[in-house]
Design brief:
There is one protein chain. This protein is an alpha/beta fold and about 575 residues long. About 45% of the residues lie in helices and about 15% in strands. The chain is built from 24 helices and 16 strands. The strands form two sheets. Strands 1-8-7-3-4-5-6-2 form an eight-stranded mixed beta sheet. An eight-stranded parallel barrel has the order 9-10-11-12-13-14-15-16, surrounded by six helices. α10 links the parallel β9 and β10. α1 crosses α6, α3 runs antiparallel to α4 and α4 runs antiparallel to α6. The longest helix is centred in the N-terminal third of the chain and has 24 residues. The protein starts with a strand and ends with a helix. The structure holds phosphoenolpyruvate (PEP) and magnesium ion. Phosphoenolpyruvate binds next to β10 and α19.
Length: about 575
C-alpha cells in the first residue's frame, strides 16, 4: 500500500489546506537551461536599469549611478558567459552562477585600487539576485489551482504576491511564530508551519499534499482516504461573516478592534469581518527585497489601493520599518546607495571603464538601518509622508513611527509631517509612536506629551525583554503575558491614560487568547490584530468582563513566569 510522507513543523498560522506542492528555494538545486540562466541575468540587469531610471527621474542621481553600475555587472559577458557555458557543459545552475561570480569577485579583490576591490561584493549580490530570479516562487511556473508553498525561508512578500494566485498554505524551513512571514500568513488566514526539516525541499513539485497547520503537519502524497477526509477545506481569503458595531466586553466596555495589514487583500478581509479600520499598515513589507529607498510614485502605487478601501475610517500608516527581519539588501550590505562607502560597482572586465565614477557618492550620510536610516536619507521620509497624505485624504489618517527610541526622532518626524501636509494641502494627521523598545516603554510618560497616541509593539518588545530573536522558534505572541513584559505594557497604558491619549496594542499578542484578557485588564483600549483574526477577537472580547480582567492582570503582574500567567488566564 502507498504510504504518504509526513513532515512535522511549528504551527504559526492555524488552519487546514490542501493543494499541490510548489517548491522554491535558491539554496536548493535550481534546475535551469543555459537560456534560462542567460534570461535571468538579463532580467536582473533590466530590473536594475529600470530602477536606476526611476531614481534618476526622482532626482536621486547618485543612487541611480550605483544601481546602473549593478545593472552593467549583470549584463557583463565576462560574468554571464562563463555561467551559461558551465550550464551548457552539464553543471547545475546554482553552482555555475556562484562559480562564475566567485571567479570575477576574486579578480576584483586582487586589484590594487580599494574602491574597485570592494566591488567584489556587488558581483556576489548580482549572483544572489540571479539565483533568486531563477527560483522565485513568484516568477516560477506554479501548479494550476490551489498550491502549498514550500521554501527554505518563506518571505512576507511571497505570501502577499501569491495570496490571490491560489496560495492555500505555506511551509518554511526557517523562522518561527514571530517572523514576519508568519505574521502575514495570520493576517491573510493562510495556514503555515515553520521549522520543518530541510528534506521537505526535496519533495516533488506538483505533488498533492495536505497541510494541517493546527496539528503542525504536512502530509505529502496523501492517500485517497486522507484527502477525502479534508475535502473542500481551503478557505483562506474568503470573507468571514461580518460582525456589527463597535466591539465591547460583556459588561459594555468599548474596545476598538482594528486590523494589521500589508496589502489590499488583508484590508478587505479585515473590514469584512468588522474591523473599524487599520491600526497598523506595515508599509515596508513590499520592499524587503528593495535595492533603494522607494520613490514617491512607488509609495503612491503601494498605498492607494489600500487607503482607498478606508474612506472615513482609521488608517494608521506606519513609516518604513526596515529593522529586524525586514532589512532590505540596500541597507544590509553596509554600502547603501547614499552612504559614504557606496560608489561605483563593476565586475572585473568592466572595472577599468567604470573607475571614473568611483567615489561619486563619497560624503553622503549613511545610517545602517531602521528609523535612523529613514531619518538620515534626504528624501525617504518626505516621499513617504507626501504619498500617505495624498492617498489617505479621504481616510482618518494617522502616521505611526516605528522603533522610536528618542524624543528627537518624534520632533524630526513632526516637523517633516507639517512641511509635507502644507506641501500637499492636506490636514495634519495624528502622529503616534510604536512603543516596542524596553527603554521607550519604561519612559512612556516622557513621550506621551509629544505624541497623539501610543501603539505597543509586543512582537519586538517581548523579544527584547526576554532576549529572543524574531526568527527564534521559541518566540511567540503568548509570551507577552510574561510579567516583565506585562508590567511594561501596564506602564505604557498608565502613561497614556494620564496624558489622555489612546493606547493600542498592535503586536500579535493582541489576538492571543492567553494575553488578550490581560491587555484589557491593564487598560488597553484599542487592539489591532491580524485581519483574519478580527472576528475571533471580537467574540473573545464579548465574553470578557472588565473588572475580572483587571483583577486577573493584577495577579498576573505578581506571577514570576509566562506559564504562571497563562495558568491564571486559563483558570478564569
Ligand atoms: C511589533 O513589533 O509588535 C509590531 C507590531 O511591529 P512588527 O511586527 O512589524 O515589527
Ligand atoms: Mg516591531
Amino acid at each position: 500500500m502507498r504510504r504518504s510522507a509526513r513532515f512535522r513543523g511549528l504551527p504559526v498560522s492555524a488552519g487546514l489546506a490542501t493543494g499541490r506542492l510548489h517548491i522554491a528555494d535558491s539554496g536548493a538545486a535550481v534546475s535551469a537551461t543555459p537560456d534560462e540562466v542567460r534570461d535571468a541575468f538579463a532580467a536582473v540587469a533590466a530590473q536594475r536599469s529600470a530602477l536606476a531610471g526611476r531614481l534618476r527621474g526622482a532626482g536621486r542621481d547618485e543612487e541611480a549611478d550605483i544601481i546602473e553600475v549593478a545593472g552593467l555587472i549583470a549584463a557583463d559577458p565576462a560574468l554571464v558567459e562563463p555561467a551559461v557555458a558551465a550550464v551548457r557543459g552539464g553543471e547545475q545552475a546554482a553552482t555555475a552562477v556562484r562559480e562564475a561570480a566567485e571567479s570575477q569577485a576574486a579578480l576584483l579583490e586582487r586589484l590594487p585600487a580599494p574602491e574597485l576591490a570592494e566591488r567584489a561584493g556587488d558581483v556576489r549580490q548580482i549572483a544572489h539576485a540571479v539565483l533568486d530570479q531563477l527560483s522565485s516562487p513568484r516568477a516560477a511556473a506554479r501548479p494550476a489551482g490551489a498550491f502549498i508553498l514550500i521554501r527554505r525561508e518563506v518571505s512576507p512578500a511571497d505570501l502577499i504576491d501569491l495570496a490571490e494566485a491560489g496560495l492555500a498554505g505555506a511551509v518554511s524551513v526557517a523562522g518561527g511564530a514571530s517572523s514576519h512571514a508568519a505574521i502575514i500568513a495570520r493576517g491573510l488566514g493562510v495556514p503555515m508551519i515553520t521549522g520543518v526539516d530541510a528534506a521537505v525541499l526535496a519533495a516533488a513539485e506538483g505533488q498533492h499534499a495536505i497541510l494541517d497547520a493546527d496539528a503542525g503537519e504536512l502530509i505529502v502524497g496523501p492517500t485517497a482516504a486522507e484527502l477525502a477526509a479534508v475535502a473542500n477545506v481551503n478557505g483562506a481569503g474568503q470573507p468571514q461573516a461580518r460582525a456589527a458595531g463597535p466591539a465591547s466586553t460583556a459588561d459594555g466596555r468599548k474596545i476598538a478592534v482594528l486590523c494589521n495589514v500589508a496589502s489590499a487583500t488583508e484590508t478587505r478581509r479585515g473590514l469584512a469581518a468588522g474591523a473599524e479600520g487599520v491600526g497598523l499598515l506595515r508599509t515596508e513589507i513590499p520592499y524587503t527585497d528593495a535595492l533603494a529607498w522607494p520613490t514617491l510614485p512607488e509609495h503612491r502605487a503601494q498605498l492607494a489601493p489600500i487607503l482607498e478601501l478606508l474612506a472615513g475610517k482609521p488608517a494608521t500608516v506606519r513609516l518604513l520599518d526596515f529593522s529586524g527581519d525586514k532589512i532590505p539588501p540596500f541597507l544590509s550590505h553596509g554600502r547603501q546607495p547614499g552612504s559614504a562607502a557606496a560608489g561605483t560597482a563593476a565586475s572585473a572586465s568592466a572595472a577599468a571603464g567604470l573607475a571614473g565614477t568611483a567615489g561619486a557618492t563619497a560624503g553622503l550620510a549613511g545610517a545602517t538601518a531602521g528609523l535612523a536610516a529613514l531619518l538620515a536619507h534626504p528624501t525617504a521620509l518626505s516621499d513617504q509622508l507626501l504619498a500617505a497624505l495624498d492617498a489617505g485624504r479621504r481616510t482618518r489618517l494617522s502616521i505611526l513611527i516605528p522603533m522610536v527610541s528618542a524624543l528627537g526622532e518624534v520632533t524630526q518626524v513632526r516637523d517633516a509631517l507639517a512641511r509635507a501636509a502644507s506641501a500637499a494641502g492636506a490636514d495634519l494627521p495624528r502622529l503616534g509612536i510604536m512603543v516596542e523598545l524596553r527603554s521607550t516603554a519604561a519612559a512612556a510618560e516622557a513621550f506621551a506629551p509629544a505624541v497623539d497616541f501610543f501603539s505597543i509593539g509586543t512582537n519586538d518588545l517581548t523579544g527584547q525583554v526576554l532576549g529572543l530573536d524574531r526568527r527564534d522558534p521559541a518566540a511567540k505572541p503568548a509570551l507577552a503575558a510574561h510579567p516583565q513584559v506585562l508590567a511594561l505594557i501596564a506602564h505604557v497604558a498608565d502613561a497614556g491614560r494620564q496624558a489622555g491619549i489612546p493606547v493600542s496594542v498592535c503586536g500579535d499578542s493582541a489576538a492571543d487568547p492567553l494575553v488578550l484578557p490581560l491587555l484589557v485588564g491593564v487598560g488597553v483600549d484599542t487592539l489591532s490584530v491580524p485581519a483574519a483574526h478580527v472576528l475571533r477577537v471580537r467574540s473573545v472580547l464579548a465574553d470578557l468582563d472588565y473588572p475580572a480582567c483587571a483583577a486577573l492582570a493584577d495577579q498576573a503582574l505578581r506571577a514570576s513566569t509566562a506559564e504562571e500567567a497563562w495558568k491564571l488566564v486559563l483558570a478564569q
